[in-house]
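Student: I would love a firmer grasp of how sequence relates to backbone shape in proteins. Thank you; the sequence and its tokens follow:
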Amino acid sequence: MTWIKQKDKIDGAMKAKVYSFFEKLQKDDTSPGLHIEPMQNPADPRVRTGRIDQKFRAVLFKVFLDTIPHYFYYGAWPHDQAIEIARSSVLNVNSANGVLEVLRKSAPANTAEPARAKTPPVPPKPEIESAPVTVPAEVWVNPLAQSGTEAADLVSRLGLDEELVQAAYAAPSDDRLIDLLGDAPDWQATALLELAAGMSMAEVEDKLALNQFVVDPQATEEEKIKQALEHPATKMQFTFIGEDSEELRRVIEGGDFDAWRTFLHPEQRIYAERHYNGSFRLSGGAGTGKTVVLLHRARMLAKSEPSSRVVLTTYTTTLAESLNNGLSRLDNELRRAEKPGESGVLIAGVDSLVSRVLHPATDAEKRQAMKGLFGMELPAPSNLIGTDPSAKQWEYALASVDHGLEPELANATFLQQEYETVVLPNLITAKDDYLKIPRAGRGTALNRAKRLAVWKLIEEYRYHNRIEMHATYVEMAHLAACVLRQRGDGNRVADHVLIDEAQDLHAGHWLFLRELVKKGPDDLFIAEDSHQRIYGQKVPLSRFGIGIVGRSRRLTLNYRTTQQNLAYAVGLLKGAPVTDIEGEQESVSGYTSSRVGPTPLEQAAPTSVAELDNLAATLKTWQEDRVDLGNVGILVRYNNQVAKVISGLDERGMRARNVDASDPAGAPMVMTMHRSKGMEFTRVVLYGLSADSLPASYKKLAPAEQADALLRERSLLYVAATRARDGLVVSWSGKPLELLGAV
């Protein structure tokens, strides 16, 4: 049995009935209760319908593959609609490219509708009485019609449906174009979206592997179907279930949130399965499927090399837990490793990995690492401190040393960044070395006198930390890298390292990860989006012996959020120059979404009390519209806002919960924007984005560091806005955050 990706969602009540129907079908397709019946005068004689219950019928295609009956499940609809769909639907192998697809043969007269269109989607109801985002009035120009590519070429060369192409070229608006594509076969919709985003036909052919299969005209139709099932573009919408009832249950119950586990874009499949001669970098905007590729790639490497040691890591523990859950959903039987050096897949946050390597190291290894990093052969520090305690240590050093530096340099932020991006990666232990070292990537220039003053502060900072046996997470990463470097290539603890959210890693992490695995084929696979850099420093990979020249690609199609939300999120980055992890200019051009939804709403309130009133009213409206509030995220800038929002909603008769709490079940989750990284929700409220929500500390920084701090704030807003699959509300009281003016 083969499952065809659903265009129409299966609601909760129907899932169990569909599963029960298929359990019976797998046991005996002649069972009278199933009512597997052919149609009168169908467009495809292989089409069948089956009874789900008294009201709903399944539409299937029965094909004999190697003389064995094989069912393709197309969907379930109310009785009359199912009959109409069954009569007009055809299971077809595209003669131009060998892709398997379902086509609708009853074409309406109006070419503004594609031939296979189903019931048009119901426009979403406005969430609440609130003004939508103000967008300058512009005349929309159809990018397909203006692309210079002839519609006829898309039909003859790519194999796109002629009526769909004509309708797409005639679409009067962006929303209408995506509406049309929403009912097309996945590969055809993707091809037109990529063309609309500016890709050439050759690039689309390559991305969808349309030129890799040749249809044998002498083959039987069944032979063509069997071969088509192996086509990467077919696998975007078709997946073989066989007799695995548990797999069937997971496909049925997974829905939209879990579709990634089964259906991969051909381009994603290429990056997940292809082997590389060295390190590889995959970039892409939020929601383009980078993490999906990593999970499938980890599974591929572990299965193809059962004894291999595969490490899958990311910046935070929360994201690592998400990766762990994702891999379990993908393949719960995959061999797992408990510690570095064991066969199987090991998933851990990068700082946890550092600890697992450094803690069991010998005392001699640790002492040698301390000598290499700090210039003294001492025991390794026993007290780990985070960013805030470290900042206090810098403040202590500033108060203890007569440095003479101006305020924009005499602050913890500047000193910590200088220490972490210049001193530690270059293993600087003496003043003379610091005076000579190039400070590539540091925006603020330092003359000799200022370098001497900065070095005095660094010495004081290090001296105090040695007395207290303190070390930061960044220093520990460097120490672990030094330990691994001592051991050499013959004692690496991983064969393949896959890295998610790589833009947030610092220099110590990169040095550590480089030493974790020997240089060679498929050593490092790096997924990153520089527009989402909210933690790490800008550190080019080439500085750490990681070469990706010629092995770097970008994903552009967003699968998570709507076109409207994507446009809003990208607008938050407008005018802010972003560079990738190789120091090259990064662009959001070409990013597009395959989904449409409501226009994001901006809610202004005169006071914080009124803003809470607006939030409660929004949630009540969604609740009345039967939105599952358990899939709603309320994102704030600071931790102390979480409890205030939860208690404020409780006072207004609406329950909410902290992201770490399971109760009350079905209530919206409140968390910081930082914490939302890697998560997704059906609807999102960005709450409390008032003018005073920007950290005041950035104003004390030097101009270069100030610009980087503001870029991080923009990136944080971009991350938060792209957590929404459908509805997005942006809320503030008093004056709005200045950065919102970019939209």
Summary: Residues 39 and 48 are 6 Å apart (CA to CA). DSSP finds 24 helices and 26 strands in the chain. The first strand starts at residue 2 and ends at 4. The first helix runs from residue 12 to 27.
